[in-house]
Every structure is written in C-alpha cells, then in structure tokens.
Specification:
This protein is α/β, with parallel strands linked by helices. The chain is built from 12 helices and 9 strands. Strand 4 (114-116) and strand 5 form a beta hairpin.
C-alpha cells in the first residue's frame, strides 16, 4: 500500500463551536483547500459507541457497543483490521479505549501503554488515560504532545492509517459546559495546534480528515439526540470539490470513506456510501 490517511478526532467538539472558533480549519474551507460537511453522530452520542461507529461504519444497535461501559474488543469489520489484512500499517495516538476496542481488553498499562507490534490490528500504539485531561489547561498531556507523538510515528513507521485522538474539548466541556468561554478557548487551541502540524502531515504524504465523535450541551453533557450533541463538523483536506457540502452527512460514512480514499475494499456491513 502506498496511500496514507490521518484521522484527527477531536472528542466532544460540536459543529457550531467548530465553525465559530476553529479559524484555521474554516480558513482552509474558505480558501478552497478543504471540504466541510455537517455530520450527524450516531445514537447514543457517547464516546465508545461513536468510536466504534467511526471505525466499523455501523450503528451502535448493530455493533453492540452501546455505552461507555462496554469496554471489550470489537466484533465488527473495522478500519484497522481491513488495512492490516490488506498488508498496510496502522497506528494510533489515542485514549486507551481504542486499545480495548481493537487490540486487547481489559487495558493493561504495562503491556499496552506503548508498543510496536506488527501482529496487532493497531500495530503502533501510544495510549493515554483520561486522567491526563481532568482539568482545563492542566498541561499533563497537551495536544502539542499528542500531535508530536503522531508526527514522530509517521516519520518512523509511515502507517497507512493513523488515528490521533484528543480528549481536551470533551473534558473541558464536561467541566465548564459547551457554551463556556473555556470550551470555546479549548477549541481554538486545538485548531492552533492543527495549524502548526498540518504542513508536516501534508509533506509526509497524508490525506487528512478532521472530525469529532459528538458535540456537547450547554450543561456539559452528551448522549442524547439534540443538535448540540449530535452535529459535528467533518473536514477533508484536498477534496476535489472544496467548500461547504450540502445536506447532513451520516457518521457511518466515515469508515467507508477512509477505506475508499485508501483504495481498499469496503466490507458489506458498511452499508452507507463513502462521502463524495
């Protein structure tokens, strides 16, 4: 495989906040360098169900990861597995939930925190615990650190599919609410960090997507059906038709879109068409 895709997953970042406070990403759309969709997250709008839907292309009612307490291995065809089966390389710099979904559950920090193991679905892994993000601007693991780890992984291993996952906006949203100045500032900060690293990712030959798993309510919650928790932005760098896409996209389209851009077959269970 020669093609390479990076998915930047910004946990808990709602659509309206993305459009209002992610000036770099919106500038790429305005300048004709990216396409932006409004996307409806699956239900329930909880992190683990959304993580699995983003990578399996199926709804929680189908894949069975229904709550944040369903911490077990995926039983679905998923992006990491399809890429690995095709002879490609996979990587993730992400919360430990992804290790539990695709490599080994329960998570054992001494075994799973950091590894390079080509026999695993996620071959190159750098995982963290949510405790890193318990307070706004705590600084124990910043987005700059996450993106640096991802860029080092790109340079060292050239994964064909790489996930980098930030929990910052989700944690700040839970602490201060989805309409708070702190939440808005966190969105702006992660956008600044994406701006800093984007040129490196593109120079390394990556096709870049940026999105969120779900949004955040004003009172600091998610899981339900309202627009503030369900609508997220989905950006694609280098799309042939840049600008703002019409309509409302389906989050189940993300997995088949990634595989389509990689030139890989799409499993039958992924019934939603790739984004065009």
């Amino acid at each position: 495989m020669e093609r390479k895709v990076l998915l930047v997953l910004l946990d808990g970042l709602g659509f309206d906040t993305s459009v209002r406070f992610c000036g770099f990403m919106e500038g790429l759309v305005e300048a004709g360098r990216a396409r932006r969709w409004k996307m409806a997250a699956v239900l329930p709008t909880l992190s683990l169900p959304c993580y699995e839907s983003l990578h399996s292309g199926t709804a929680p009612a189908v894949h069975g990861i229904l709550t944040n307490d369903h911490r077990r291995l995926s039983t679905s065809d998923h992006v990491f597995g399809v890429v690995r089966a095709a002879g490609g390389r996979t990587g993730a710099v992400a919360h430990l939930n992804f290790s539990e979904l695709y490599n080994a559950a329960p998570y054992d920090a001494f075994r799973d925190h950091e590894y390079d193991d080509e026999s695993r679905p996620i071959q190159y892994g750098r995982f963290y615990d949510k405790g890193y993000y318990t307070k706004f601007n705590l600084g124990l693991l910043s987005d700059r650190d996450l993106f640096t780890k991802a860029t080092v992984m790109m340079r060292r291993f050239q994964p064909n599919y790489l996930l980098v996952h930030s929990l910052g906006t989700d944690s700040v949203g839970h602490a201060h609410g989805g309409q708070s100045a702190e939440y808005q500032a966190q969105a702006g900060m992660v956008d600044d960090n994406i701006a800093f690293f984007m040129e490196h990712w593109l120079e390394l030959g990556y096709h870049v997507f940026v999105t969120a798993d779900h949004g955040m309510s004003a009172d600091g919650n998610h899981g339900g059906t309202t627009d503030d928790v369900r609508h997220v932005a989905f950006y694609e760098l280098g799309h042939a038709s840049p600008g703002v896409a019409p309509g409302l996209a389906d989050q189940r389209a993300v997995a088949p879109t990634i595989l389509h851009r990689l030139g890989l077959p799409i499993p039958a269970a992924m019934t939603v068409a790739p984004l065009e």
